Amino acid sequence: RGEYRVIRIIRAYFSAICLIGIILFAFFEMIINPIRESQLVPTKEYHSKYSEFGSKSSAPVWGIVAYMGANNILPDAPGKLEDAVTVTPLWDESFENPPPCQTLLGYKYSGQYYNDNNRFNPSIRAITIFCPSAKLLVSVNFSMLGIPDNDRIGNTQKSTVLIAVGLTNDTRDVIRDTLPTPLSPGLHVLGAVRQRIRQRLNSGSLSFLGLFTSSRTFVVGDIVSLTPDPSTSAIIPRGPGMASLRIHVLFESTDWTISQEYREKTVWSGFATLGGFWTSISSGFAFLFGATLLLVTFGKGGNRI
């Protein structure tokens, strides 16, 4: 069409560079970033006065999850973790026949749980005890685990049982989302439990694609304050090798805190971003060369700048 040779060369170089850029952009937006986000899931936080779980001070069933490194339990210990941990409900005097706590067979986790967040002991052993009361006394008899009361100070991590408050049947969710309270021999503390709502994505593969994402919702119990237990009640075991944690629900009128997982980088969102990027590049080529990038690439158009 009477174009200068240099114009055609410049146009060819520009189209090649832009096509390579678009391919790299698509590779990162549709593959690399969604894979990277599958390990680093973003979380949004909301605050609401109302919740499907009702009042903060009334939870139907409370669960105590006790766990420790599987390798920290000695093979010749007198008992197992379920023998060393005891949960006692603290009922008011108005209850004549209060129901006791139960360690259900279906929820007795004597197997090993693998938690990538636990860098020191990726293999842990846990049990779950369910109680119908929000006022609980958790006792740990370390002599049942073969841990002496005067253990060396350098073995604190190995002689510690972690206690977490769970309000869901899934012990793995409790371990992953609740900051535990460590109990060591001779420690007796009083704590208050604050509730918040957690939403986790169910299917990693579908959320990776950005299609049909669903989440499960449960309540997390965080122990927000710890003080030495001033009680001198005989129900609190204070003998050698014993530790206790007395907890109650924190009475508060603040809004619910909701932590929700979501996907920011998915295959579908990358495809949409790619469409916008392609439109911008094609518009720029149409302005400079009188044809879109696709027409220039296949030699179907192009005018002088």
Condensed summary:
The protein has six helices and twelve strands. With 305 residues, it is of the alpha+beta class. It has two domains: 5-41 and 265-297; 57-197 and 223-253, no CATH class.
Could you explain how this protein is built, in words?
By secondary structure, the chain is an alpha+beta fold. The chain folds into two domains: 5-41 and 265-297; 57-197 and 223-253, no CATH class. The protein contains six helices and twelve strands. It has helices at 5-39, 81-84, 171-177, 204-209, 267-289, 293-297; strands at residues 43-48, 62-69, 85-89, 112-114, 123-131, 136-141, 161-167, 181-183, 188-201, 215-228, 242-249, 256-261. Strands 1, 2, 3, 4, 5, 6, 7, 8, 9, 10, 11 and 12 form a twelve-stranded mixed sheet that branches. A hairpin with an 8-residue loop joins strand 4 and strand 5. The protein is elongated and about 100 Å long. 25% of the residues are buried. Residues 105-121 have low confidence and may be disordered.
Fraction in beta strands: 25-35%
Can you give the helix content as a percent range? 25-40%
Largest sheet: 12 strands, mixed
Number of strands: 12
How many domain modules?
2
Classification by helices and strands: alpha+beta
Transmembrane segments: 12-32, 267-296
Keywords: Membrane, Transmembrane, Transmembrane helix
Give the helix/strand layout.
Elements: H1 5-39, E1 43-48, E2 62-69, H2 81-84, E3 85-89, E4 112-114, E5 123-131, E6 136-141, E7 161-167, H3 171-177, E8 181-183, E9 188-201, H4 204-209, E10 215-228, E11 242-249, E12 256-261, H5 267-289, H6 293-297
Parallel strand pairs: 9-11, 9-12
Antiparallel strand pairs: 1-12, 2-5, 2-7, 3-6, 4-5, 6-11, 7-8, 7-10, 9-10
Helix pairs in contact: 1-5
Transmembrane segments: 12-32, 267-296
Keywords: Membrane, Transmembrane, Transmembrane helix
